[in-house]
Design a protein that fits this description.
By secondary structure, this protein is α/β, with parallel strands linked by helices. It has 13 helices and 8 strands. It has one domain: 3-Layer(aba) Sandwich (Rossmann fold), CATH 3.40.50.
Length: 303
């Protein structure tokens, strides 16, 4: 990883998020709409962001960095979140096909893809279906339903996983009871102090809260479907992913993966596994430059 700045130093000098430079929506062939936001130069290297749980297109990352590196960052509302038309019963494969069509509509070619938090399995689906030129999983929600994790999950999480895998429709109804305020409270309650320094930054908090409110504008059904998909068994075979992969976790991240992505890295041959000290789940915003720099290098060499 480049540089020697500590996280404490970075927190005093970093702007985490910018408002989108461009906002829009695209009509898919079946008539559904996908809402999206963009940052950076229109002729930059396309990087598609699959954002975290219950956040809309509004919350990007790499303020200033995307311009410096020549990145065209695109964030998309998954169906039922933000401006995107709901698609009840959708699958990971359905999402990947939506992204394939959006890439054609927006002239993105085969973009590099970033999956953050609950967006990680959706990004992995894009890689598995040949849409991505390179992939970065950042503080990714791991496959907690994998049998290797059964003995290490907390009792509460294990109960949710069992409920999701055995009765997905029932679990989806349960998750549909969440709200934007409940999500904010859950994130801040589970975060270490190093992450709270980011989340409670006034500009970041404003952007994050706006993204949550927009994501729930149509209700919680979109978030609920995302959560059932992410928390159940993943249908794609990770060892068939052939594009270059970076896996990034903060050392103090205890909420996204039981082992900071160690098992996940072994399931994708050649994946580079990074565990960053002094930070938790806020890694996407504190370390945007090394994440994007590595991703661009991989995307350019794989084209």
């Amino acid at each position: 990883m480049r540089g020697t700045l500590s996280v404490a130093m970075m927190l005093t000098m970093t702007r985490y998020v910018d408002a989108p430079a461009l906002l829009g929506e695209s009509a898919l062939p079946d008539g559904r709409l996908l809402g999206w936001a963009e940052w950076g130069p229109l002729d930059g290297v396309p990087v598609l962001l699959c954002p975290g749980a219950a956040t809309s297109r509004w919350l990007g990352f790499g303020a200033g960095t995307v311009e410096m590196l020549g990145v065209r960052l695109i964030s998309v509302d998954r169906p039922g979140l933000g401006l995107s038309t709901p698609a009840p019963g959708r699958t990971f494969s359905d999402f990947a096909e939506d992204m394939r069509q959006l890439c054609a509509l927006r002239g993105l070619g085969r973009p590099a893809v970033v999956g953050n938090s609950q967006g990680a399995p959706f990004a992995l689906a894009c890689a598995a279906e040949g849409i991505a030129s390179a992939l970065a999983v950042v503080s990714g929600a791991d496959e907690v339903a994998a049998p290797e994790f059964a003995s290490v999950l907390s009792a509460d999480l294990r109960g949710l996983v069992e409920r999701t895998t055995s009765a997905p429709a029932d679990a989806e109804k349960f998750f549909a009871g969440f709200t934007a305020d409940a999500m904010w409270d859950m994130v801040t309650a589970q975060s270490p102090e190093c992450d709270l320094a980011v989340y409670q930054d006034p500009d970041f908090a404003s952007g994050y809260r706006r993204a949550l409110n927009e994501a729930f504008a149509q209700g919680a059904a979109g978030y609920a479907r995302d959560t059932v998909l992410a928390m159940g068994r993943w249908p794609f075979v990770l060892d068939t992913i052939t594009v270059p992969v970076d896996i990034w976790y903060g050392e103090q991240d205890t909420s996204h993966s039981p082992d900071n992505g160690a098992l996940l890295a072994t399931r994708m041959p050649g994946a580079n596994h990074h565990v960053v000290p002094e930070i938790g789940g806020a890694l996407l915003w504190t370390h945007a430059e090394p994440i994007l720099t590595s991703l661009l290098e991989k995307a350019i060499t794989h084209r």
